[in-house]
Write a structure and sequence with these properties.
The chain has three helices and three strands. A three-stranded mixed β-sheet has the order 1-2-3, with helices on one face. The radius of gyration is 20 Å and the shape is globular. The chain starts with about 35 loop residues before the first helix and ends with a helix.
């Protein structure tokens, strides 16, 4: 069987549709809210109350939350007492095919929206860097061990 495929030109990227630039290292993630203040701190506190649906460990302690940002939103068409901020939450899942993706992202969104100053929450799923067990906090490891898992 012969191949009619041509070799790519020397120096060409392996895939023309993929960006191979280096991103953040796994050590840069996840975040735990350490040092957060004000509304951002309140969002982190709300996220600590969200447990993974399969085990009693918070999504923060599992290392699923990569970042939390609070940004102002246009309140022109809203009442003066309406919340005027959006929470943007960058998170990952333990693997990209997680069957609880919709449930988990909805729980995170709803938790952030319980903060009185938050009008809306946006969830941005990230898979880079990929989640790994080293991202679990010490509290998360303790909870996983109590649950019967070896970490």
């Amino acid at each position: 069987m012969s191949s009619d495929r041509q070799k790519p030109p020397a120096g060409s990227p392996a895939c023309g549709y993929t960006d191979y630039t280096e991103g953040a290292t796994p050590e840069a993630f996840p975040k735990t809210g350490e040092g957060a203040t004000g509304i951002e701190r309140a969002v982190w506190d709300a996220l600590y109350a969200v447990d993974d649906p399969e085990m009693p460990v918070s999504v923060v302690d599992l290392g699923l939350i990569y970042n939390v940002f609070v940004e102002p939103i246009d309140t022109t068409d809203r009442s003066q007492n309406a919340p005027s901020n959006r929470a943007v939450i960058e998170m990952t899942l333990t693997y990209s095919g997680c069957p609880a993706r919709e449930l988990l992202t909805n729980d995170v969104k709803c938790a952030a929206e319980t903060v009185p100053e938050i009008a809306d929450a946006e969830i941005r799923l990230r898979y880079s860097p990929p989640w790994n067990v080293n991202m679990v906090t010490d509290d998360g490891r303790t909870a996983l061990r109590k649950f019967g898992l070896s970490v």
